[in-house]
Amino acid sequence: MTAPAAATSARTPGAVTRYWKTGLVIGNLDLTGITAAPPDPAPAGDRCLTLPPGAVAGLQLLEDQFLASMNQLAEADGTPAIPAVGVDVQVWRNGYDMPAFASQARYAGWTVLSATAPGHSESGCLNLTDPRAGSALTAMPGLPWGRQFVIRPVPGAHAVVPGWLTCSIVPLEPGQQITVAVAVSDS
Amino acid sequence: MTTATRPAPPRPRTLMAWGTVIFQADFPGAATWNEQLRDLILDAEKTDPEAALFGGINAVKSSSDLLTWDHPAISWIKGRIMDAVTALTQAELGNAASEVTHGIQAEAWSVVYRNGGSLRPHTHHDSAWSGVYYVEAGDPGGPGDTSDAGYLQLLDPRPAAIARQVPEGSHRIEPVPGRMVAFPGWLPHSVQATATGDSIRIAIAWNVAYDKTWRSVS
Question: Which of A25, B7, B41, B83 is most open to solvent, judged by the fewest CB atoms within 10 Å of its CB?
Fold first, then answer.
């Protein structure tokens, strides 16, 4: 069969509706008042190091922002508000990666506090995976299905997603370091 | 002295991502075509060597060459399938949909459901788009039947979300003669049991795929 070259004509009845959308909160935060220790020029040890709470100034500001974003998403989802959020600050380095993971919490989030510039634009990125099973396996011109949301590790990058969403972290390059606040909702 | 103020970054945006497109239409003037399609399908059922009870219950599927039958009603249903595919492609690709005009491969088959016939959840994983057109809906059922006899159930394709009991889970569509429903081939779907009794429900199901010679569409 050959499709008509034109788009759907005005006479064509029917409608296309989108179902089962997945809510995400994506943004770029102002980090004024929030500072983390500068990158270690010669990192050694753990690929993922959790910093003590006192290592980051403005931790309360971060918690407030995560809580606001999670409740923004809860409102979009039509679900009860999130009462509280827990935040860890981590340093990713020495080739750290996470092939696939999810959270048991209702919502999870990340804010990049500092980052060295990688040689490759995708190193250290946070990928949010299309959650629709099988969608990535179907040949369709334009490849509209199975695409990932890619969050680049630049200071201020901020994302909040449903905890059930499969995510991954692209391996960091040698020498690359990212300090990131990692949040989970308290419900 | 003036104080320079830096504009505040925009508030983080809420994006509703990865929605699954579903087309639904009730074609005007379908009744006349449906009478002809009904006769064609029931006649073919008597002689079709490939007609078979397949994965469903009390459901007979014809061979998949329905679109090659030489009849005006088949030409009409081809046009309606293309209406659905065009609408869906435009919804997914926007203006780039106008570039997707070649290499489209379509197949269709009839399914005749009888006394309690149903079909368990499945996908059409080799096709980009799949759909169903209702030729005849059958009776709504008697006291022993549920109110959703013969309904199409489109299932949330996000297993992780289902595991957390986030969504309602399914979108149900009543079978109405003249109604077309179309969706991505990877979307799981099932058919509720047809009502018990002597009435039958007739549907035309179809797949559309693209050959691998399509050019990149950005």
Answer: B7
In whole angstroms, give the CA distance from residue A186 to residue A86: 7
Pairwise CB contact (< 8 Å): B166 & A162: yes
Do A138 and B8 lie within an 8 Å CB cutoff? no
- The alpha-carbon gap from B40 to the nearest alpha carbon of chain A, in Å, equals 21
What does the angle CA B113 – CA B119 – CA B120 come to, to the nearest 5 degrees?
A: 170
**Nearest-angstrom CA–CA distance, B23 and A145:** 17
User: Angle at Cα A107 formed by Cα B15 and Cα A179, nearest 5°?
Assistant: 90
Q: What is the pTM of this model?
A: 0.89
pLDDT reported for residue A152: 97
pLDDT digits (tens, 9 = 90+) for B119-147: 888 999 889 999 999 999 987 666 665 67
- Which of helix, strand or coil describes residue A175? coil
| pLDDT number for residue A17 | 97
Cβ distance of B104 and A27 shorter than 8 Å: no
User: Backbone phi, then psi, for A129, in 5-degree steps?
Assistant: -90, 135
| Tens-place pLDDT, residues B40-86 | 999 998 887 777 766 667 778 888 999 999 999 999 999 999 999 99
Concatenated DSSP letters of A75-112:
HHHT-PPP--EEEEEEEE-TT--EEEE--SSSEEEEEE
